[in-house]
Amino acid sequence: MREHIHKVLKQHWGYDNFRPLQEDIILSAMSGKDTLALLPTGGGKSICFQVPVMAAEGIGLVVSPLIALMDDQVQNLKKLNIPAIALTSGYSYREIDLALENCVQGKYKFLYLSPERLKSELVQERLKRMKVNLLAVDEAHCISQWGYDFRPPYLEIAEIRKLLANVPVLALTATATPRVVEDIQQKLNFRQTNVFQKSFYRSNLHYNVLKTEKKWSKTLEILQKIPGTAIIYARNRRHTVEIAEWLKKNGFTADHYHAGLSTAERKSKQQEWIQNKTRIMVCTNAFGMGIDKPDVRLVLHLDLPDSLEAYFQEAGRGGRDGNTSYSVILVGPSDIEDLRSKYLQSFPELDFIKHVHQCLFNHLQLATGSGEGISYDFDFNVFVKKYSLPSLKTYQAFKIMEKEGLIQLNEGFERSSKILITTDKTTLYDFQLRHPKLDGFIKTLLRSYGGLDTEYTSINENLLAARLKIPYEEVKKILLHLKKQGVIDYQPREEKSFITVNENRQQAKHLSVSPENHRYRFEDLKKRIGAVTDFVESDHICRSKLLLNYFGEKSTTECGHCDVCRKKDNQSDKGSLTKRIVQFLKEQREASVTEISKEFRIKEASLAESLRELVDEGTVTVTTDKVTLNK
Asked: Is residue 460 scored above 80 in pLDDT?
């Protein structure tokens, strides 16, 4: 088995060896054991479930809450000629039905689903007929009530296991406290405890917290000192644009990134950064998931993260090549209070969530008992204005409803146009013979995209227009005509944001947001904000030790290179220097500052603090030209 997985790794990914713990995790899963893998960001979690799926007959079922990450992994698998599909909320009922049937028929090797999809009867019925060889649960901390991103729909996974007899589960996460580790295994019905955990310690990652009233000028100073690729996390979309433009004016190559950009814009910006055409990416926390760029030298937070879990993952995007990288949090005078205000004071009450829920269904014009599984065009700004709702608090209410599995909001998501050929080859050929003016168009379509007769395929009308040398509108007109003739099913792209309703409308009093979950979320939020506050305010405990202890990894060794450790070293050096000055003066009785400077090979300016300390304690007297040891 060991030799086989190495062969699979080399054949599909081109690697000769696994990273630490990957091989052990893979062998555990392939031996049929339920397995929990804790690997820090950049530790290679995807390989852990992709290799065993490829090494066995059947399909791998991957559950993940992150649409962007699912899409990214599917695209990467397709580049390796591995058939994979992610059933995200942008799919119609017919697309889902066809995709699931193709999974049953063995036309895909990986099926990615959100936990909400597992509730679907359509999905459950097809799973019974699929030859699933592994159930992979990504971001597994979401299943734990004590996880920082608890999502009740994840609890459905335990029920799904009943449909997948003897299929092992491989749960993966980058961050989990000991309590969460235990809870994940319990909630996923592990047959026995089985945890593989790589140390969270990153020797090459230097953590720093710097307090400053001038963040932008401090950012310039840091970027000038630390060369190489950088990520700068900012609080909101507007901020990312402003900072990126300011950096450009100061001579840096920089760009901005946030969820409100179109899919094409995000991919283009990301690619420019990966290829080092852009040095600095200024972004919201929408950036980074699934991006494997090994040579990031600096990860800078201009605003406080909302949890140490989030911070650890974001900081961990630096130094994946094993070389020194720096994580810097810049803390302003009002940042801690702003963090508390943003998350604690704006946390929505249960009654407010119910009110927003009712407003949403009124806005979508849905009657009680309707709406399940349907996606609707949705403009958040129009919605809050229409119902006079506070934006931040309403957004928090939406996020809670999303985590509870009631809705899924795809902010800024651009849906590509899709096509499926609905006739067989003989009928299509006959149609081409009878319509010679459309023959060239159909041939170009078939040459441009493969698999049109087996699955809905994303297309680009602009690309077709360029190849056919006809206007964009003419392409759309022909595609709509072919749809009318029954040759294809054509679904034009939707450029607006949209919202998916996962459950039928309920009366407000029956809204399935658990009061216990709501109360827990607020208490947990307070603890997380408190942990962040303690982390940035501490000035005497090594940053690495603080992080490791938070994640249950007890460490007595200091990293030696965070801002706290460096400060201790400096203080130790100063103490040693004052002792050496006193000893020198005992031998000389008195000496000039220049003579002391030459003796210890230290600049005169650097002596000032040590001499001031000796004067304050009455050990020496300093005149214009002499330093004298007092009796």
From this structure: no
* Residues 232 and 300 sit within 8 Å (Cβ to Cβ): yes
531-542 pLDDT, tens digit each: 999 999 998 899
Tell me the one-letter amino acid at 531.
A
For 116, which DSSP code?
Answer: G
For residue 422 the two structure tokens come to 């609905």
**620 and 583, same structural domain?**
yes
E-strand spans in 397-532?
Answer: 407-410, 417-421, 457-459, 488-491, 498-501
Question: pLDDT of 223-262, one tens digit each?
Answer: 999 999 999 999 777 788 889 999 999 999 999 998 767 7
Residue 530 belongs to a domain: no
d(CA 187, CA 157): 9
My answer on whether 22 and 105 are in the same domain is: yes
What pLDDT does 413 receive? 38
Q: For residue 494, what pLDDT is reported? A: 56
Residue 572: pLDDT band (50, 70, 90) is low
Give the mean pLDDT of 489-501: 73
Least confident segment among 130-144, 210-224, 372-386: 372-386
How far is Cα 556 from Cα 282, in angstroms, rounded to an integer?
35
Residue 477: which residues within 8 A CB-CB, separation 6 or more?
A: none
Per DSSP, helices labelled H in 458-511 are 461-468, 472-484
CATH of the domain at 244: 3.40.50.300
Structure tokens at 260: 């409100």
Query: Which of 224-228, 274-278, 562-566 has the least mean pLDDT?
Result: 562-566
Written as six digits, the tokens of 549 are 């202890």
Q: Are 200 and 217 in contact (CB under 8 A)?
A: no
Give residue-wise pLDDT tens across range 504-525.
Answer: 777 666 666 778 888 888 888 8
State whether 167 and 21 are in the same domain. yes
The answer as to whether 532 is a domain residue is: no
Place 606 in a pLDDT band, splitting at 50, 70 and 90.
low
What's the distance, Cα to Cα, between the start and end of the chain in Å?
79
DSSP for 202-264 reads -TTEEEEEEE-S-HHHHHHHHHHHS-SEEEEE-SSHHHHHHHHHHHHHTT--EEEE-TTS-HH
Q: What is the pLDDT of residue 605?
A: 67
Do residues 231 and 289 touch, judged by C-beta distance below 8 A? no
Residue 606 burial (CB count, 10 A): 12
Q: Based on the domain organization, do 30 and 142 belong to the same domain?
A: yes
Reported confidence tier of residue 98, pLDDT bands at 50, 70, 90: very high
- Calculate Rg over the CA atoms of the chain: 29
What secondary structure letter does DSSP report for 494?
B
Name the residue range of residue 436's domain: 417-491
Domain assignment present for residue 553? The answer is: no
Looking at the domain assignment, is residue 520 inside a domain? Answer: no
Place of tokens 């799904």: 160
Q: Report d(CA 451, CA 35) in Å as an integer.
A: 35
Looking at 318, 333, 348, the residue that finishes a domain is: 333
Mean pLDDT of the chain, nearest integer: 87
Q: What pLDDT, on a 0 to 100 scale, did the predictor assign at position 496?
A: 57
Distance CA 526, CA 534 (A): 12
Task: Give 274-280 contacts, CB < 8 A, sequence gap 24+.
Answer: 276/229, 277/253, 278/253, 278/254, 279/228, 279/229, 279/230, 279/252, 279/253, 279/254, 280/223, 280/229, 280/230, 280/231, 280/232, 280/244, 280/247, 280/252, 280/253, 280/254, 280/255
Domain total in the chain: 5
